[in-house]
Amino acid sequence: MSIKREYGQEQPHIPAGPFKIRVPFVHYRFELADYFQGLLMCAVCLSAIPMLQEYLGMPFEVALAVVALNGVLYCLHVFLGDPVVPGWVTPAIPLLMLYVSNFEMGAERVQALIAFELTLGILAILLGITGLGKKIIALVPNAMQAGLILGSGFAAVMVIFKEGQRFDTFPLTISICIGIGFYLLFSNHFKSIAQRNILTKTLSNLGILPVMVLAVIVGPLVGEVPWPTIEWGISVPAFGTLFREWTFFGVGFPPLSMFISGLPMVFSSYIILFGDMIQSQALLEDAGRYRPDEKIDYNPNRSHIIFGLRNTIMSVLGPDITMCGPLWAAMQVVVCERYKHGPKAMESISSGAGSFRFGTLTGYFILPIVTLVKPILGVALASTMLIQGYVSVRVGVMKAKTFNDLGIAGVMGAVLATRGAAWGLAVGIILCLLIQLGNKKQYEDYIYEKPSEKTSKAVEEDVEATA
Question: Are 368 and 228 in contact (CB under 8 A)?
């Protein structure tokens, strides 16, 4: 029996410094609807496995262990008082793929990833403790922020369409699935009919899961992947092999040079993920307007500390290409929408977010789910990257304020996608100094015609619809 909260107050918790500890069944009700949705959506999280296989050379069971560890750490957010559904730093994944590819496959590449993720984690913790995150982002020009987001979009598409990569392996499956995916996520026509009946409404709330289910059917039909061989039982991630061979206990601690060379990539990733915290706050504030019975406390500094801890722990126990981000936007939207229906539907925003992440964690160990999606994980990865590429390009363009911003962002993004974060940042800084020095009034006339407020809202909805 969970402790009841007073009307208009915060959900019960145990104070612990910056954290507010909440235990399921004690401090919040366990929500079965969100738990079962998590069981289904764990398939999206499993699409991290082919990234780990391709870029680190991990065996399937070792990569599954990384995903499972990440799943445990997802639960830290609600446990420590951050009422969100956490996820990856998705837009930065293609940039990180490009970065680690500069190192030789094997121990050297794993060390580079460890150094990057450890630095990112420590940076986030320090910024969370000091509260300096917003001040740092404010110093970065809009042109460079737009360039980073555009570059991540370009890189995401290039990762899939580069000769010999995923598209050449699954051309028909990817074409069909991504076509349907783009229609469900971004089409004006589908948005106009999404609320007409329970089927279209459900499809609109499931993010990219329908794409993955479609891939399970289409892939074998066109002969590009085998039909899944369903196995029953409990999956057994190779935690022992992961610790012995894929952490610094096995490959050795990274040299100082790797920490230094990774700084541009760390800075780029941080700027990208900062937007997730802004979006988290906006979504929770919107949900709170419908639920005066609960006071929702979202603290960006606390979120910094928690996802910083996650990245730090994963750098030690299981370095991960997807990184540890503060928000899974698509599922946060779904949880918030159900939360708006009142206490009978969802007792607390924490109960919904926490129960969902317990569902995904359970799904990693259910062998029928794992074996069902195993053959199409490459297609799932391609779909995720292409959808992310589309969103990143749109958001990057919207981030630019002037024609000069847009030009700088385009050049910077192209360099970033082809030469890496260090080159991209250097080009962005030089172009900003050369082009934008001077009185701001001198170039106000060059502000390009921004899309309407309605269009801007559509872009925000696109971001929310993706992982």
Answer: no
> In whole angstroms, what is the distance from residue 395 CA to residue 440 CA?
24
- Tell the burial category of 457 from Cβ atoms under 10 Å away from its Cβ (0-12, 13-18, 19+): exposed
Residue 5 is classified by DSSP as: P
Entry pTM: 0.80
CA neighbor of 143 nearest in space, from 394, 425, 461: 425
- Give the pLDDT confidence score for residue 392 in this predicted structure: 79
CB 388 within 8 A of CB 466: yes
How far CA 428 is from CA of 50, 77, 120, 148, 190, in Å, comes to 32, 34, 21, 9, 38
Q: Which residues contact 175 (CB under 8 A, 6 or more apart)?
A: none
First to last CA, the chain: 33
Q: Residue 300 pLDDT more than 50?
A: yes
The per-residue pLDDT for 430 is: 92
Q: What are the structural domain ranges in the chain?
A: 14-141+185-376
Rounded Cα gap, residues 462 and 206, in angstroms: 13
pLDDT of 109 strictly over 50 = yes
61-80 pLDDT, tens per residue?
999 999 999 999 999 999 99
What's the number of CA atoms in the CB half-sphere (13 Å) around residue 379?
Answer: 32
Task: Assess whether pLDDT exceeds 50 at residue 459.
Answer: no
What radius of gyration do the chain's Cα atoms show?
22
Q: How many angstroms separate the Cα of 49 from the Cα of each of 64, 271, 372?
A: 6, 25, 14
